[in-house]
Amino acid sequence: MSKRKSFVLRINPETFKQLEKWADDEFRSVNGQLEWIINKSLKDAKRLSNKQKPDTDKNQ
Questions:
Q1: What is the pLDDT along the chain (60 residues), one digit of tens a residue?
Q2: Count of structural domains, the chain
Q3: What is the domain range of residue 39?
């Protein structure tokens, strides 16, 4: 299992509310949704190397 880095994120309450709803709609936790969004953005920007395989795409 890969190691994960923890960090604190300050976010606007309304933004969090919308993110929480989106995560619920896709049967993910807020943390899982954030990981999915970040990984998708990195892939779309071609910033992920082929060796990096995000494990958050299992639900998609």
A1: 578 899 999 999 999 999 999 999 999 999 999 999 999 999 999 998 876 666 655 554
A2: 1
A3: 12-45
